[in-house]
DNA sequence: TAGGCCATCTGGTCCT
DNA sequence: AGGACCAGATGGCCTA
C-alpha cells in the first residue's frame, strides 16, 4: 500500500524548501538558488560513499532481466515517489511565487492556479519594468533639466508624494505618479509604514499596498485582517473601487483591475478569452477547505495507495463571481 | 453535467 | 545504471 517507499531518497531535483523559506520573507533571493545548487542538487560526493558501501556489501547488481517482479515493483514505487517529490517541490516553488505576487492572499482567498500564477508573474514583471522605465524618465525630467547643480541627487528626503505638492506645477507623469503615491495616505512621522511582511521586498515603493489598518477601515466587508491590498488588484475597499479604462499610464496601472493590466495579454490570447473564467482568479470564502493537507488516493494507479498529502483546492469562484458577491461593477470586457 | 484544475502514475528520453 | 525531466493518461473535486 505504501508507494512512498522512495521517500528517503537522498536526491532531489528541487531547491531545498527549508532554505528557500528561511530566506527573508520567503522571497526569491539568491539564497533560493544557493539552496538549489548547494542543497537541492545532487551531491556526488555525498552519494559516493554510500554507493561504495552498498557495492562492497552486496552482490553485483541485477540486470533488468534479472529483476524479479518484486524488484520491478519496488523500482516502480521508488520512481513514483521521486516523481511525486519532484512535483511537490515544483508546487512549493509555485507557492513561493504566489507569495510574492501582487494579489490578495489570506485564508479566505483562493490561491491562483498554476497557469494564472505564471501569467501574472510574467505580466507583473513587465509592468514593473515599464514602471521603472517611466520612473527613470520622470526623474530625469524633474532633475535632469534643473541646471542649478542639482543634478544627480535628490534635494530632499521627503517622499515623492510630498515632492509633488499642489504648489508645484506637475508634469503629467508626475501627476500619474502622484496618483499612485496618493493611494497610500502619508503616515504620521513616527508611525511605521506598512509592515514589510505585507509588501514584496523588492517592489518599488509606489507599488506598495494600503496599510492594513487603512484596508481594514476602508474594507466594508472586513474580508480578513490578512487580506492584502494591492494597487490594481481586485479589492473591495473604497480606494480600489474606481475602474479605470485600461491605458498604459502609471495611473491606470495602479487603478485598473489586474485582468485589464496584468492579465491583459492572457485575456487577449489565452484560453480564457471566452467567458467568465478569463482571469482565472479564484476567490474562496470557504474556510477550512483551502490549504488543508489531506491524505487521499487518486488517479488510476492509486492501488499503490499512500498518495502523499496533496493540497486540495477549495471552492472555486471566478473573479466575476467575486465581483458580484461584493457588489462591484463589471470589469473590463475581457471578463 | 461539462469544463477546469489538480495529483498521481507511467513510460520514454536524456544526461551524468 | 540511476536519476531528472517530460508528456500522456486517468480520475477526483469543484464551479457554473
Automatic annotation (TrEMBL):
One of its GO terms (molecular function) is DNA-binding transcription factor activity, RNA polymerase II-specific. Residues 290-301 have a biased composition (Basic residues). The keyword Nucleotide-binding does not apply. Residues 38-62, 180-199, 290-315 are annotated as: Disordered. One of its GO terms (cellular component) is nucleus. Keywords: DNA-binding, Nucleus, Transcription, Transcription regulation. Residues 74-128 form the BHLH domain. The keyword Transit peptide does not apply. This is BHLH domain-containing protein. The lineage of its organism: Eukaryota, Metazoa, Chordata, Craniata, Vertebrata.
Amino acid at each position: 500500500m505504501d508507494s512512498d517507499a522512495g521517500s528517503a531518497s537522498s536526491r532531489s531535483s528541487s531547491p531545498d524548501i527549508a532554505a528557500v523559506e528561511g530566506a527573508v520573507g520567503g522571497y526569491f533571493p539568491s539564497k533560493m538558488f544557493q539552496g538549489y545548487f548547494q542543497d537541492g542538487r545532487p551531491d556526488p560526493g555525498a552519494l559516493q560513499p554510500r554507493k561504495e558501501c552498498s557495492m562492497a556489501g552486496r552482490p553485483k547488481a541485477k540486470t533488468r532481466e534479472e529483476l524479479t517482479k518484486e524488484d520491478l515493483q519496488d523500482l516502480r514505487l521508488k520512481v513514483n515517489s521521486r516523481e511525486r517529490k519532484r512535483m511537490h517541490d515544483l508546487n512549493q516553488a509555485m507557492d513561493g511565487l504566489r507569495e510574492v505576487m501582487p494579489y490578495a492572499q489570506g485564508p479566505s482567498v483562493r490561491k491562483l492556479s498554476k497557469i494564472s500564477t505564471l501569467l501574472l508573474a510574467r505580466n507583473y514583471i513587465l509592468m514593473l519594468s515599464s514602471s521603472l522605465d517611466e520612473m527613470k524618465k520622470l526623474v530625469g525630467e524633474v532633475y535632469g533639466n534643473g541646471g542649478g547643480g542639482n543634478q544627480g541627487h535628490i534635494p530632499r528626503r521627503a517622499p515623492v508624494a510630498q515632492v509633488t505638492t499642489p504648489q508645484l506645477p506637475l508634469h503629467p507623469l508626475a501627476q500619474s505618479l502622484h496618483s499612485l503615491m496618493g493611494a497610500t495616505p502619508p503616515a504620521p512621522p513616527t508611525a511605521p509604514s506598512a509592515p514589510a511582511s505585507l509588501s514584496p521586498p523588492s517592489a518599488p515603493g509606489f507599488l506598495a499596498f494600503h496599510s492594513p489598518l487603512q484596508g481594514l477601515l476602508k474594507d466594508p466587508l472586513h474580508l480578513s485582517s490578512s487580506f492584502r491590498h494591492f494597487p490594481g488588484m481586485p479589492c473591495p475597499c473604497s480606494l480600489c473601487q474606481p475602474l479605470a479604462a485600461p491605458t498604459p499610464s502609471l495611473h491606470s496601472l495602479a487603478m485598473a483591475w489586474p485582468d485589464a493590466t496584468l492579465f491583459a495579454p492572457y485575456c487577449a490570447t489565452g484560453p480564457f478569452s471566452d467567458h467568465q473564467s478569463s482571469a482565472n482568479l479564484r476567490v474562496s470564502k470557504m474556510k477550512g477547505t483551502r490549504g488543508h493537507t489531506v491524505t487521499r488516493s487518486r488517479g488510476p494507479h492509486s492501488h499503490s495507495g499512500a498518495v502523499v498529502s496533496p493540497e486540495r483546492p477549495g471552492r472555486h469562484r471566478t473573479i466575476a463571481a467575486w465581483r458580484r458577491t461584493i457588489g462591484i461593477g463589471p470589469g473590463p470586457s475581457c471578463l
